[in-house]
Amino acid sequence: MAVKIIPYHYRSPLLQEAVRVYIDVWQRNKEESLVFFRNYAQLPYFYGFVAQQNKKIVGTAFGVQSKTGQWWHDKVAAQVGANHPTLQESWVLTELAVLDAYRNQQIGALLHDHVLNVQPFPNVLLSTQVSNIGAQRFYQQHGWQIIHAGFAFTRGHEPYVIMHKSVTHSC
Fold first, then answer.
1. Tens digit of pLDDT for each residue in 72-108?
2. What does pTM read for this prediction?
3. Are the C-beta atoms of 58 and 52 separated by less than 8 Å?
């Protein structure tokens, strides 16, 4: 089945579809998730995409520039050091999610590759749960390396590994 990768932005109706996928995959609250997506969609260098198969949105990926003053960036910088080379000129893959019924069909890989190819920075970062071995394996198979073995962003919550990938852009 052909999969289309389609961009979305802050005012796009596809943002709501991306939120629907996120809610389904992560069992999150709808209103909080919509706020989460809209807040990110207004940040510098936001790139968001959905995967469509048979006119159904089945996956999403988005990210933003990672820079000092942003919550995620500052939390990671406190762990690895603000001058860590991977935090310089960096972009963070904030979300990559595919509905369960559509996994293992290369849809996640298509979203991953597309969003990384359009973002303009040489360093890309992400965080995923320490317990999410499947996600870590997926990212490592796509060239990511762990730069921090895990810490909790918020006290009492699950720890996350921090991963990095260098991206070469052709001119």
1. 999 999 999 999 999 999 999 999 999 999 998 999 9
2. 0.93
3. yes
Which of 128, 44, 46, 1 has the alpha carbon at shortest distance from 18? 46
Please list, in sequence order, all residues whose beta carbon lies within 8 angstroms of the beta carbon of residue 30, skipping any fewer than 6 positions away: 19, 23
Cβ contacts of 104 within 8 Å, gap of 6 or more: none
- Tell me the Cα Rg of the chain: 15
Taken as a whole, the chain contains a residue count of 171
Q: Give how far Cα 168 sits from Cα of 37, 90, 93, 147, Å.
A: 27, 12, 16, 19
Report the relative pairing of strands 159-166 and 145-152 from DSSP bridges: antiparallel
> What does the angle CA 17 – CA 61 – CA 144 come to, to the nearest 5 degrees?
160
What confidence score (pLDDT) does residue 170 get?
63
- Whether 82 and 90 have beta carbons less than 8 Å apart is answered as no
Q: Mean pLDDT, the chain, as a whole number? A: 94
Q: Hey, what domains does the chain have and what are their CATH numbers?
A: 3-166 (3.40.630.30)
Single-letter residue type at 37: F
Dist CA 45 CA 157 (whole Å): 28
What whole-number distance in Å separates Cα of residue 170 and Cα of residue 109? 20
Let me know: does 80 contact 119? Beta carbons within 8 Å. no
